[in-house]
Amino acid sequence: MNTLLNIALPKGRLGERVYAMLAEAGFPCPSVLEDGRRLTFENEEAGVRYFWAKPSDVPIYVERGVADAGVAGKDILEEYTPDVYELLDLGVGKCRMAVAAKRDFIDRPERTLRVATKFPNIAGRYYAGRGRNIDVIRLSGSIELAPVLGLSDVIVDIVETGATLRENGLTVIDEILPLSARLIVNKSAFRFKNEPIRTLSARLGARIREREEQA
Ligand code: PRP
Description:
Layout: E1 5-10, H1 13-24, E2 40-43, E3 48-53, H2 58-63, E4 69-73, H3 74-80, E5 85-89, E6 95-102, E7 113-117, H4 120-128, E8 134-138, H5 145-149, E9 154-159, H6 163-167, E10 170-179, E11 181-185, H7 187-192, H8 194-214
Parallel strand pairs: 1-3, 1-4, 7-8, 7-9
Antiparallel strand pairs: 2-3, 4-11, 5-11, 6-9, 6-10
Bound molecules: 1-O-pyrophosphono-5-O-phosphono-alpha-D-ribofuranose.
């Protein structure tokens, strides 16, 4: 019987950071960091199998149960609202979802607002809560370009350092929500692999508290 915990990690810098936390928490699998094109790695002794997935796909693997657990940004969880448990705020990958516009932007509430974003559901909910009509322009990246070129009035996007906004003459006009990486878990795995999942979550939680105390 397969008793390994299957964990989907978001490919990239955030995933590598979270893997380091998992290794410190007692779930190492050194081959994860090898150069190469392999996507799955396991360490039977530590009881884990890791996958590198595209960050926005992690909740799909977890929701469908091929991964028991995974790491996803709160932005992705809010946008796709997967049917999973969110167990832990990992305290890394901190940034915020914000509305931004050109510095000289003047809002005319009687007009439909053109909103460029990669997050149409988050943007839709935010403006619905304000009773505002919007025209969502769905883009896949470099969202900041839209207001600069006049494609949109505002953007709803992730702001980390603020450098991209600054260097393109844009400014935050409202903050929607703080973001960070979360540990998510498949609902049935939480029942059937409860003990290893709780151990993983507790040890990771302890590591996070230690790091916060050191900071
Ligand atoms: C993200 C986000 C912003 C930028 C914010 O883009 O969409 O564009 O980072 O970071 P900053 O506040 O530190 O400048 P990403 O680099 O992921 O690429 P994308 O433009 O393709 O979405």
